[in-house]
Each structure stands twice: as C-alpha cells, then as structure tokens.
Specification:
TAT_signal, Twin-arginine translocation pathway signal protein
C-alpha cells in the first residue's frame, strides 16, 4: 500500500535562519532603496488615508486578476475602485507594525529593482497582462521561500476581504446581507 499522506517538508534550524536572513535582506534593501528614491513617501494618495500613489499601479493590476470570475467585466472598473477604498479603510485600522510590513510589501512591488527578480514583472504594472500577474501569483504561491508564500497569502486575503466586505459583492455569492438591526 502506498503512503498518500502529504508529508510536510522538514525545515531545519539552519534553513529557517537562511529564509529569515533572506527575507530581512530583501525587505531592508527595499526599504532603504524606497526611502532613498522617495518611493516610500508616507503621504497618502488623493482621496485615501493610507494607500500611496506608488501602491496604485500594483493594486489596480492585481485586483482584476484576484476578482476574476466574481465580477462581470463591465463592473470591474467600479469593483477596482471600491476594493481600493475598502483596502485603504482596512489598512487604516492595522497596528503600526502590521501596517509597516504591508507598506514594505507594497514597496517591493513598486520598485523595479526588487519587482523584477521577485515577481518576474520587469516592466511597469500598467503594462503587465493578466497572464503575467497570474504567473507572478503562481510563482509566489509555489515558492520554496516561506516569505513569498506568506506575501501571496497576504495579498489575496487583503483583496478578497476588501471586496467581499462590500455590499455589491454579496449577490454574487448568495449572501443576502446582514439582518436588519432591531432595536
């Protein structure tokens, strides 16, 4: 009889340290480079509390791919804008430390020096096709590096939670909405 159970790969202490050091180096490089280039300005984009102008191209490219099949094509522009507003609102409630990590994740996506090697998207996000973004997401989901797999999960959760918190998403999944509040 064949053993069909999924065996979790064993991670040694040395392997964990290597992953931690690699992740620290990537985020530190991204942070320093972003700070020096002015990319990491903490000034929110117009109409937003947290999201910066440098975050928008990445999120505008990512959201339609993540919401593919959940939103009709003619409703996608409104869904993107609504999801951006919901992401911004969610980020405004994060603890300072979690917000800092999320901003670093967005900085990695915004800078070509880190975006290309880590995502495979060498040009701007505006020029990336849906197939390119799907490939990037698959690459991170199936990466041997825990840091990239965690980044993948974080990005998907951020977008999906932001979209499904919006009333316009509820009809697609059959949710009638919250019950009326009774006094």
């Amino acid at each position: 009889m064949n053993d069909t159970s999924l065996a979790a790969p064993q991670l040694s202490r040395r392997g964990l340290l290597k992953i931690g050091l690699f992740g620290t180096a990537v985020l530190a490089t991204a942070g320093v480079t972003a700070t020096l280039s002015g990319c990491s300005a903490s000034v929110p984009a117009s109409g937003f509390q947290v999201l910066r102008a440098s975050d928008m191209p990445f999120l505008r490219a990512l959201i339609p791919v993540v919401l593919e099949g959940a939103v009709p094509a003619d409703g996608m522009p409104a869904a993107i804008e609504g999801t951006l507003q919901s992401i911004d609102l969610s980020l405004s409630y994060l603890s300072p430390e979690l917000l800092k990590l999320t901003v670093q994740l967005f900085d990695v996506q915004a800078m070509a020096v880190t975006r290309g090697p880590l995502t495979g998207i060498w040009g701007s996000w505006e020029n990336a096709s849906a197939a390119d973004i799907r490939h990037f997401l698959d690459r991170w989901q199936n990466s041997s590096l825990d840091l990239l797999r965690m980044g993948h999960a974080s990005l998907l959760q951020l977008v999906q939670m932001a979209w499904y918190s919006r009333a316009e998403s509820w009809g697609h999944c059959g949710y009638p909405g919250p019950p009326p509040y009774a006094l």
